[in-house]
Amino acid sequence: MTRGLASLRRINPTILVFVVLLAAICWMSPLYRTPAGLLSLLQRAAPVVILSCGQSFVLIAGGFDLASGSLITLVVVACALITGGDAGWTWVALLASYGIGAAVGVVNGVIVARGKVPSIIATLGTLLSVKGIAMMWSGGAPGGYLPANLRFFGRYVWRHVPLVGRFPVAVVVLIISIAIMAWLMHGTNFGRLLLMIGDNPRAAELAGAPVRRFRMLTFVISALASVTAGILLGGFSGVSVDVGTGYELQAISAAVIGGVVLLGGQGSMLGAVFGGLTLYALFTLLNLVGFPEPMRVAVQGIILIAAAALSARRGRRI
Question: What is the pTM assigned to this prediction?
Fold first, then answer.
């Protein structure tokens, strides 16, 4: 019995919260009581989960990335304008999007790691700059549409799949993204040293860790995760200059809910995944209950404050 209690304590509490929320969702809506319904929930949650995992790298290293939402918007606008609705330009648009994402990540990383600018200020500036570029490029109201083979990643569903019936492509993208980032964080020296850097950057530097380079890489990873989330969101909702609004705060909230400490030095990809799932499940439950949009925004603010307070408490215990 003592071993059982010890095992329970080791379980990330976010997993238990997600299970409770999922049970409430299934109780309120029969749609989610089937494998297809649960996979549909994962499909819609995929962008938030991917963003949460990418944001976790930056947070664990002791920084913030506020530019992810505006980068999502720029990616969707860029894909629409590059393709012009022509499916033949899809792969060019995808390569360009990841190139833009990598460039934004490098700029953020250089400003923070080399320029010694606080990450919250640097990425806030990038947020405004990237959003401005998206608005200028689109003329403030992007026209056109994304071709079907680009929307495939966010919208397409394989049918007649054994056992589950319908299987969204976005869930495959989600699984691959999580696997890559989990391997980086927990299967390489990069991830282990990143935890050391977030905990005590000076000690990590004295131990020979390339602190500046690793911090820069965290912003690149976060930016590439934002590009992936943007491609999925474009597939879900089409072209809009507001498609990425607020996602940077959702990503930070989800990561902190999952156990990532805002001060750096502690966190896991498993926690980030369930943090994202928990946040999306909560929003889904609020929708089912009938909460109006302004109330959902207020709840998100409360969650962010509570998550920050919880993270500060965790940080003091380390």
Answer: 0.91
